[in-house]
Design a protein that fits this description.
Elements (H helix, E strand, L loop, with lengths): L11 H10 L5 E2 L4 H5 L1 H10 L4 E3 L2 H5 L4 E5 L1 H16 L15 E6 H7 L5 H6 L2 E3 L1
Parallel strand pairs: 1-2, 2-3, 4-5
Antiparallel strand pairs: 3-4
């Protein structure tokens, strides 16, 4: 395992070049707002270096990333709405339970897989919540 660090967008290219030089097989991007805000250039850079990458949110695969697995952001917004409703109806925030995500989604971008020359196993495709073709 190789840990790559980036404190600014300008650090992406040197980090990925380093990964390629170290013969890293794939990239796993952490669930960090810094990366999420910069998902489009990050996904484009991974594609330019032909680096298969996994991401924490479906928004990355919508932007052309290979695959994502993580909690549904839409589901989180739904939960936030229910919490807001409960508070507006008089419940105290301190009395509301802390909840973890209950729905995780696997999204696979087959267009990107084909571009990378990867064949995604049928068993993995069958498990996916969505396949982008």
């Amino acid at each position: 395992m190789v840990l790559l660090k980036a404190g600014a967008e300008r650090d992406f290219e040197p980090a990925l070049v380093s990964a390629v030089q170290q013969r890293v097989d794939a990239l796993l991007v952490s669930a960090n707002p810094f990366f999420t805000q910069r998902r489009v250039p990050l996904v484009a850079l991974a594609a330019r270096h032909a680096m298969p990458a996994g991401y924490p949110w479906r928004e990355y695969t919508d932007a052309g990333g290979l695959m994502s697995y993580g909690p549904s952001i839409a589901g989180a917004y739904h939960l936030i709405g229910r919490y807001a409703s409960r508070m507006l109806n008089g419940e105290k925030p301190a009395d509301l339970p802390v909840q973890a995500p209950t729905h995780y989604e696997l999204v696979i971008n087959l267009k990107t897989a084909k571009t990378l020359g990867l064949e995604v196993p049928a068993t993995l495709l069958a498990l996916a919540d969505e396949v982008i073709e």
